[in-house]
Amino acid sequence: MKASVYSCHPELVEGWSKFILQRWVIMKPGHDYYVYIVECGDDSYYIGVTNDLERRMWEHNTGYDPGGYTFDRRPVQLKYFEHYTDVNQAITREKQLKGWSRKKKQALFRENWDELKRLSKSSASRQDSNNASTNSA
User: What is d(CA 97, CA 101) in angstroms, rounded to the nearest whole number?
Assistant: First the structure.
């Protein structure tokens, strides 16, 4: 069914749109999905979701997508990943991790659960104090 939409609208599959559509069509419920974090050559982190972790690492390190975040930040090194069978859960987790501080991500890499808890509490208390100052103004 999706292929007929694309064949009717070939302009949708040109350039980067083709790259995005390929990813969207591949992500099906009930399959294997991975939320992953790579460390880039410039020491920044990139977080993504894929259904093929090995292929995705190859894509990041070979510059498969010239418009992508990691293209000018190669090489990348896999620091962490989680497995999911529900793409929606994987996407939710990706969004959550993207909101985390660098220190919190590093605690996750080290599986330092005490540090992760401490950083979560300090983050929550900062949010509470920000909300209190906003509400009192």
Answer: 9
- Using DSSP's 3-state secondary structure scheme, residue 13 falls into helix
Cα separation, 50 vs 48, whole angstroms: 7
Domain regions of the chain by residue span: 28-99, 101-137
pLDDT tens digits, one per residue of 76-97:
999 999 999 999 999 999 999 9
pLDDT of 36 higher than 60? yes
Spell out the residues 6+ positions from residue 100 whose beta carbon is closer than 8 angstroms to its own: 108
Token pair of 42, please?
């410039």
Residue with tokens 């995705």: 56
State the architecture of 28-99 in CATH terms. 3-Layer(aba) Sandwich (3.40)
Give the number of other Cβ atoms within 10 Å of residue 11's Cβ: 8
Which residue type, as a one-letter code, is found at position 15?
G
CA 117 to chain CA centroid, Å, is 22
* Average of per-residue pLDDT values in the chain: 81
DSSP 108-137: HHTT-HHHHHHHHHHHHHHHHHHHHHHHH-
Residue 78 CA to residue 133 CA, distance in Å, equals: 39
Say what the pTM is. 0.71
